[in-house]
């Protein structure tokens, strides 16, 4: 423990993208496995929160336990099989997610481009199986290396072990707080002429057409995804937020038909299991919440699925706004919105 610095009554305001005022009783940064184990041992029976980039967390009160932030930055790659054009890339939990995406693309590897510009760390990426523009983390993930918080054994979990779903995994549910994610391994493709990028989602194809790009590279897709994201989502450096606050709700065909009957322009997307995903942003906008203030918290004026802290909001105010929206959507549409952001 001598080398580990423990900060007491430490402000997390600038360490979370909502940027609400919050104090952690204790805070530690760890750079490697040995330091992580020392920090967990030091915590003893006190609650522990592993903090990544703080981009999917809302604190509604001060944190009475110990916050541990992983800073490990390792990166390695090796050929998957000598003859194949697949590469195993492993990145440490503390690495910035978008730095990983940029690095793999600059090294000529394809697979992560649609997930460009998602804030946060590599270590948090499996927690909710991050997704965007038609791709989810699980599509290229090979394994997740984890530390058992109780007995300090290290395990490698496969995609099947992680039980990934839409914004979901064992790390959010049955095995919440059991593991610390140490590193994540991906299977990426050599982005040569045989590699085809995923252009199927939303306005990626129209953006390519506008730019006259016929054979898009991973870098082209990254540039377009970054452009679209910057035009819609608030930059957390300027306006506190955690991306989509709610998940897009999934309903049966019967309920989808009833809703479409009443709201013919409601966007719906078929899912693999014959259900339908509804656009939560549309429901929230239609219910009149877009741009609305609730105390010092506000629904983003360009994207109603994003709740914001324009400056002086507390976590309690943002949470109260979320509950009001949830209630209103249930009353108006009979649909339950599930929060995506982790509430503490
Ligand atoms: P944190 O917020 O720090 O932590 C999230 C959870 O993971 C917490 O429960 C934490 O305890 C746990 N955790 C973190 N690291 C570890 C670890 N090493 N081991 C165990 N547990 C850990 N998400 C998407 O899926 N798609 C998007 O398109 C998207 N867009 C966004 C846009 C904006 C502007 C913002 C602000 C957020 C967006 N998000 C999106 C949400 C967010 O970026 C992701 O959920 C991201 O993976 C969170 O990473 P983080 O490091 O900030 O995690
Ligand atoms: N919409 C509205 N009004 C709004 C917002 C959206 O009518 O205020 C409509 C749009 O017109 C569109 C539909 O809703 O028809 C979907 O909107 P968009 O393409 O912006 O995507 P989203 O469903 O709101 C999801 C993810 C994002 C991800 C994007 C791109 C969830 C909960 N959110 O947003 O992820 O980046 O698609 O793939 O699945 C996140 O998880 O934090 C996140 C930002």
* Radius of gyration, CA atoms, in whole angstroms: 21 Å
State the end-to-end distance: 28 Å
* Overall pLDDT level: 95
Largest β sheet strand count, sense and barrel closure:
6 strands, antiparallel
CATH class bucket of the largest domain: Alpha Beta
Binned strand content: 25-35%
Count the DSSP helices: 8
CATH T-level fold name of the largest domain: Uridine Diphospho-n-acetylenolpyruvylglucosamine Reductase, domain 3
Share of helical residues: 10-25%
Q: Helix- and strand-based class?
A: alpha+beta
The succession of helices and strands, N to C, reads EEHEEEEEHEEEEEHEHHEEHEEHEEEHE
CATH-level-2 architecture of the largest domain = 2-Layer Sandwich
Number of domains: 3
Low-confidence stretches: none
Cofactors and ligands present? flavin-adenine dinucleotide, uridine-diphosphate-2(N-acetylglucosaminyl) butyric acid
* Tertiary shape: globular
Number of strands: 21
Notes on the protein architecture:
The protein is an alpha+beta fold. It folds into three domains: 7-70, Uridine Diphospho-n-acetylenolpyruvylglucosamine Reductase, domain 2; 75-232, Uridine Diphospho-n-acetylenolpyruvylglucosamine Reductase, domain 3 (2-Layer Sandwich), CATH 3.30.465.10; 240-343, Uridine Diphospho-n-acetylenolpyruvylglucosamine Reductase, domain 1. The protein has eight helices and 21 strands. The protein has helices spanning 33-43, 97-106, 159-162, 204-210, 218-232, 253-262, 280-286, 315-333, and strands at residues 7-11, 23-30, 48-51, 57-58, 63-70, 75-79, 86-92, 109-110, 131-132, 135-136, 141-148, 154-158, 179-190, 240-244, 250-251, 268-270, 276-278, 293-294, 297-299, 306-309, 342-343. The strands form six sheets. Strands 6, 7, 8, 11, 12 and 13 form a six-stranded antiparallel sheet that branches. A four-stranded mixed sheet has the order 1-2-5-3, with helices on one face. A hairpin with a 6-residue loop joins strand 6 (75-79) and strand 7. The radius of gyration is 21 Å and the shape is globular. It starts with 6 loop residues before the first strand and ends with a strand. The model has no long low-confidence stretch (mean pLDDT 95). The structure holds flavin-adenine dinucleotide and uridine-diphosphate-2(N-acetylglucosaminyl) butyric acid. Residues 17, 49-57, 70, 93, 118-121, 123-125, 127-128, 130-132, 180-181, 233, 236, 241-243, 342 line the site of flavin-adenine dinucleotide (FAD).
């Amino acid at each position: 423990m001598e080398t580990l610095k423990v900060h007491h009554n430490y402000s997390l305001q600038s360490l979370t993208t909502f940027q609400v005022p919050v104090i952690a009783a204790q805070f530690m940064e760890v750079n490697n496995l040995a330091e992580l184990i020392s920090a967990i041992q030091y915590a003893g029976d006190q609650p522990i929160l592993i903090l990544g980039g703080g981009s999917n967390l809302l604190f509604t009160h001060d944190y009475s336990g110990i916050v541990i932030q992983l800073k490990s930055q390792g990166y390695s790659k090796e050929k998957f099989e000598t003859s194949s054009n697949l590469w195993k890339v492993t990145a440490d939990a503390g690495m910035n997610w978008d730095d990983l995406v940029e690095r793999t693309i600059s090294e000529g590897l394809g697979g992560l481009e649609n997930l460009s510009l998602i804030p946060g760390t590599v270590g948090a990426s499996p927690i909710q199986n991050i997704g965007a523009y038609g791709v989810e983390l699980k599509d290229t993930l090979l394994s997740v290396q984890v530390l058992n918080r109780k007995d300090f054994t290290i395990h490698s979990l496969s995609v099947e072990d992680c039980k990934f779903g839409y914004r979901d995994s064992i790390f959010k549910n049955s095995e919440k707080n059991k593991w610390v994610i140490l590193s994540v391994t991906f299977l990426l493709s050599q982005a040569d002429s045989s590699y085809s990028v995923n252009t199927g989602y939303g306005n990626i194809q129209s953006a390519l057409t506008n730019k006259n790009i016929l054979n898009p590279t991973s870098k082209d897709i990254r540039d377009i995804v970054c452009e679209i994201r910057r035009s819609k989502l608030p930059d957390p450096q300027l306006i506190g937020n955690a991306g989509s606050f709610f998940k897009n709700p999934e309903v049966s065909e019967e309920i989808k038909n009833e809703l479409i009957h009443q709201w013919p322009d409601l966007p719906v997307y078929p899912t693999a299991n014959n259900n339908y995903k509804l656009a939560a942003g549309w429901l929230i906008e239609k219910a009149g919440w877009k741009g609305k203030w609730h105390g010092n918290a506000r629904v983003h004026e360009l994207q109603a699925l994003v709740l914001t802290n324009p400056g002086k909001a507390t976590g309690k105010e943002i949470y109260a706004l979320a509950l009001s929206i949830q209630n209103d959507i249930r009353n108006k549409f009979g649909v339950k919105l599930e929060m995506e952001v982790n509430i503490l």
